Amino acid sequence: MARYYGLVGFYGGDVETTPGVWDEQIVERPYYGDVVRYTRSLRTGDDVNDDISVSNQISIVSDPYALQNFHAIRYVTWMNSKWKVSSVEVQFPRLILTIGEVYHGN
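^ that's the sequence the OP posted. Answer follows.
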């Protein structure tokens, strides 16, 4: 089992950047954990290149902030990329994060 250390991005609300334009604010916090499952697949679509999709699970040791805001987790940083969190399972004191595609923001 591989070790994990990285940033987890939480939805922090909407912020008005200019009058009438709202943007999503992300709060990043560092966490330690383990990579529980490590898989990948290629999805053929209408694009020129295939899309990479992973079904990895990362188990992080949570703190009170993560336990209270697990529903707001948007992404994790892993292998120099940000990955969307597709599901979160609470197994106190850990959170099991299942990641899918590369996170591109809003």
